[in-house]
Design goal:
The protein is α/β, with parallel strands linked by helices and 346 residues long. The protein folds into two domains: 62 residues, Phospho-2-dehydro-3-deoxyheptonate aldolase, domain 1 (Alpha-Beta Plaits, 2-Layer Sandwich), CATH 3.30.70; 259 residues, Aldolase class I (TIM Barrel, Alpha-Beta Barrel), CATH 3.20.20.70. It is 36% helix and 17% strand. It is built from ten helices and 14 strands. Strands 7-8-9-10-11-12-13-14 form an eight-stranded parallel barrel, surrounded by six helices. Helix 5 crosses helix 6. The longest helix has 31 residues. The model has no long low-confidence stretch (mean pLDDT 96). The chain binds phosphoenolpyruvate and manganese (II) ion.
């Protein structure tokens, strides 16, 4: 349930309402906007008398929220959530590029790629140290050593690091990373979601390969309900009947999630396509659809990469794409603004 307060709501009256709600075991999340304060009520609201609340002096409107996700719901929090990581502010209307190798292979490799992607305009470095691989015989990542190499790359470049946590036992090693990635295969590992919800670092939550928007948002809700509201959603393609591409990039996810949630949305055209030649068009489509950022795999020697070489861009290709993406983002933001104004004028 959400309660929209009148702009001039008196503090004492509000405190009275809050005390009453707490006495009914309802948790209240306030969202203070430019014009209105919205109270998001979480708990068993079925026992609350909606008419009684609506009749209060300070209340403008009361609405029941049907969706099972509350904290992630835009109705609870109309303003976009902005997640700050280093120099990047994801969700503030800018375009954040997160780039780097699929897997960390050596210190030299990750430092060289970090320098190149930074020069191209990326403000975060990605790189897997613990890798979820389909085959147990494939390279599984360098583990803790990989995390050390990522930190060396951060020390050299200043780029914050984004890396995947696969298992609860690895969490103590992640104290010093900047953003914890939860991969597609773990999107519904609820114990892992609760654990990253109990710590303070932002979480990049990738969409499970067969997850609906609601399942994905419920996974974000797990993290938020455990105390961590810094969640970034990442569309990375889903499993469909099409086998030509590694996954099917679900472009609709971007505008639909924009309506459903206030959380920042990024897209990963590398895993969505599986082919380097498709990364640029999908990245541009994602920017046109309004993403807050992109996660792109970049490797200095894709032919010899230990993981996901075929979908990795060479640094010089990434650099030229990044320039186009920033130009396109400015243009897309302007057109989106015009479209909003036209919508309001109707
Ligand atoms: C990755 O980003 O390295 C990765 C494994 O992605 P996903 O979980 O989307 O497959
Ligand atoms: Mn990969």
């Amino acid at each position: 349930m959400i309660v929209i307060l009148k702009p001039n709501a008196k503090r004492e009256q509000l405190d009275g309402l809050l005390d009453w709600l707490h006495s009914k075991d309802i948790t209240v999340h306030s969202s203070v906007g430019a014009n209105h304060t919205i109270l998001g009520l979480v708990g068993d609201t079925s026992r609350l008398d909606i008419d009684l609340i609506a009749a209060l002096d300070i209340v403008e409107d009361v609405k029941r929220v049907q969706e099972p996700y509350k904290k992630a719901n835009r109705k609870f929090h109309p303003e976009p959530t902005v997640v700050t990581v280093g120099d990047a502010r994801i969700g503030d209307g800018s375009l954040t590029l997160i780039a780097g190798p699929c897997s960390v292979e050596s210190e030299e490799q990750v430092v060289a790629i970090a320098k190149a992607v930074k020069a191209a305009g990326a403000t975060m470095l990605r790189g897997g140290a613990f890798k979820p691989r389909t085959s147990p015989y494939s390279f599984q990542g360098l583990g803790e050593k990989g995390l050390e190499f990522l930190k060396a790359a951060r020390a050299e470049t200043g780029l914050p690091i984004v890396t995947e946590l696969m298992d609860l036992t690895q969490l103590p090693h992640f104290k010093d990373v900047d953003v914890i990635q939860i991969g597609a295969r773990n999107m519904q590992n609820f114990d892992l979601l609760k654990a990253v919800g109990r710590q303070e670092k932002p979480v990049l939550l990738k969409r499970g390969m067969s997850a609906t928007y609601e399942e994905w948002l419920m996974s974000a809700e797990y993290i938020m309900a455990s105390g961590n509201e810094q969640v970034i959603l990442c569309e990375r393609g889903i499993r469909t009947f099409e086998t030509n591409t590694r996954n099917t990039f679900d472009i609709s996810a971007i505008p639909v999630l924009r309506q459903l949630t206030h959380l920042p949305i990024v897209a990963d055209p590398s895993h969505a396509s599986g082919r380097s030649s498709l990364v640029a068009p999908l990245a541009m489509a994602a920017v046109a659809a309004g993403v807050d950022g992109l996660e792109i795999e970049v490797h200095n020697d894709p032919a010899h990469a230990l993981c996901d070489g075929p979908q990795s861009l060479r640094p010089e290709v990434f650099e030229s794409l990044a320039q186009k993406l920033f130009r396109l983002h400015d243009c897309a933001a302007e057109l989106a603004e015009d479209t909003r104004e036209e919508g309001q004028a109707k």
